[in-house]
Write a structure and sequence with these properties.
Distance between the termini: 144 Å
CATH topology of the largest domain: Trefoil (Acidic Fibroblast Growth Factor, subunit A)
Structural class: alpha+beta
CATH architecture of the largest domain: Trefoil
Strand content: 25-35%
Largest sheet: 7 strands, antiparallel
CATH class of the largest domain: Mainly Beta
Number of strands: 14
Helix content: 25-40%
Length: 239
Amino acid sequence: MKLLNVLLLATSVSALAIDRTHTDVARSADLEEVSALLARHHAGRPAAGANGNNRNGANGRNGGNRNGGNGANTGNNNNGNGANAGNGTSTGNGGADTSTSGNTLVLKEVNGVPGNECLTFRNNGEIVDAACVNAAADRQITPTTVDGAAALRVQRSFAAGFRPDLVGVAACVGFNGTHFRAEDCAAAGIELVQLDGAALRTPSGACASGHDNLAQVTVDPTGAACASFESTVVAPTAP
């Protein structure tokens, strides 16, 4: 009887062990299947960190491009502004718009100083009668418009030791209230002189009336007695 009980007990223990083993195997299989599913699921998606890095990298690149573009635009604008400023002050005349409106001329005073009838600009800008040397820049003037107004641009240049105000600027024949002489085309308080037929005249009427005993050009502020000038077209000489 005891032997039978022992055999039954052993059989029960064996059956229980087999059932537990089957359960563990089943659970292990279930866990492996779940792990496989998770692995396949994640394999189809990039990691969150990778996405973040890619996005950040793209944003960084985009930001760089945008900033670079703005920098280029700013540079262009500055360059454009530098160029415009340069154009506005290239003649040093305060922004006056000067443009040639006629041929370069040498003017000869009718009944001027014999042998010295041609208008000549001294180093200090004064105008005198001197010998006619058509190729000399200090004898030459060119009809010009300054901000739309008729004027006569002086061909020669001036040195700082004599006329520092005319260094690097466009010089025109101007009337300062007493004399006709070379002046900055855009100088304040200066009336521009123009060639009116055979006369040199300002818009207010003052005109060149001849010359004095030192051969310097004289002015009649009333415009009643004006000298006449003959003009010769010449090739402009470099200042």
